[in-house]
Amino acid sequence: RRDSKERNFIQQAFSRYVSPVVVGSILKNPSSLRLGGERRMVTCVFTDLEGFTSFSESLPPERTAAILNAYLDRMCDTFVTHGATIDKLVGDAVVGFFGAPVEQPDQAERAVKLALAIDTLSEAFRAEMAVDGEAMLGVTRVGIHSGPAIVGNFGGRRFFDYTAIGDTVNTAARLEGGNKFFGTRLCVSHATAQDVAGQAMRPIGIIFLKGKSDGIEGYEPLTPDRPEQTYRDAYCEAYRLMKAGDTRAVDEFASLAKAHPGDRLVAFPVRRLAEGSRGADILLSEK
Description:
About 45% of the residues lie in helices and about 25% in strands. It is of the alpha+beta class. Strands 1, 2, 3, 4, 5, 6, 7, 8 and 9 form a nine-stranded mixed beta sheet that branches. Strand 4 (about 140-155) and strand 5 form a beta hairpin.
């Protein structure tokens, strides 16, 4: 009876958050799971839908609910399919992490693949709405960071959540918010990027979050065809010059912007350099 009660609790606690494969793994070895807070290395994924509040105000409430539910349903399916644990839904935002309740040595790689899948899903969803004549939905922005967190069931007797808390989660959220300044949709920290082999990425800059003395180098993960390799190499060379404080970076980025006027990540350093900034340090004043 005690074993049955434990198995039922585990199923009820985790079936909403993780894939059936993960739940099955826990059930096979429940002793590997410590219910309650424990320190774990995780990779947190934080998403947000740009401008959804203003978008929702232009539609009847029932239509807003239908669109949001359809969007979140696809998002949550994508999280679970990639092996993520869904932490919470906050309005139109989805928060998840890898590395708990079971260990995932490839958590960084999984998280970046999830981010790319989210980007594809979101852009396809936006295109479907445009075909149907709906108002244009905003882009989905994603922030990812790896590090320690306290993970466990938190709450009271009536309600509890299996969640991750700590600076790693907050950093992922703030990197997500940084996308709107960088002109990107995806922003991955160096702590995550360093454990992902074979994935094309462009450096964004060394990001100093408000209240932090140490910078975090951020990267934009790319699909193999975006942009083509020669252009990526040219971008990385311009970034190297900028990071070194070399004034030639001004002309290099200006040339890239002229050749690719739609590249918002190129427009960002062009604007910074024109304003007199030097180096790759970026101070994010907003939390």
